[in-house]
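Kindly inspect this chain:
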Amino acid sequence: MRLLTVNVVEKLIPGPKETGQTAIDKRPQPGRVPVGELGLAGDRVCDTENHGGLDLALYAYAEEDANWWAAQLDRDIPTGLFGENLRTEGLDVNGALLGEIWRIGDEVEVMVRAPRIPCITFQHRMQEPHWVKRFHLAGRPGAYLKVLRTGTIGAGDPIEILSRPDHEVTVREMFGAQDPVKLQGMLDSGVDLMDELRDLAHRVTARG
C-alpha cells in the first residue's frame, strides 16, 4: 500500500454559477509536502461550508477506483481530477472503517472520517451526464481524512493501517446502504465520529 501522488490546487477555476470559483483542480506535487491539521501546504478551499476543516482536511482516492471509472467513462482519470489530495495504490479506501487510522510515510497519521458526497461543483468538473447520481450508485466515493499527526508526505510513501475500530461500517456502507444494525454497532463501539455522521446514524437506527 502506497501513496502514488500528493495533489494541491493548481489554480482556482470557475465552478457552476451558484458557487463561483472552486479549488477542485488539484495537481501532483514533487518532493515532500508538509501536512498540517488543515491539510496540505499550498492547498486551498473555496467552499468552506462543505469542504475543509479539521475533519475534512484531506481527500483520498484509490488508483484502482480511478481505473474503474476510466473504463466506465472511456476517458483518462488523471490524478487530481476528482479533487483528491491523495491518490493511493493497493489500499481499499472505500473498505476502510470509519475511525480507522493510517500512517503515511514516517510521520503523518490520519483518521478516516467520512465518504465524499458529490456536489454540483464535481458535476461541473466532470461534464458527464447525471454524474452525481452515477457517482452515488457506483459506491466508490473515496474518503475524507483528519490529520492526527503532522509531518511531510511524498509520492511513493508507504501507507500502513495502524488500527481499526470495533465495528463494521465502512466508507462505502456509510455512503450507501446504511444498515441500521451495523450503524448501531458503530454507535455502541464508542468510535470517534463526526457530529453529522453520528446524528445520521441515530436517525437511521431510530427508523430501522
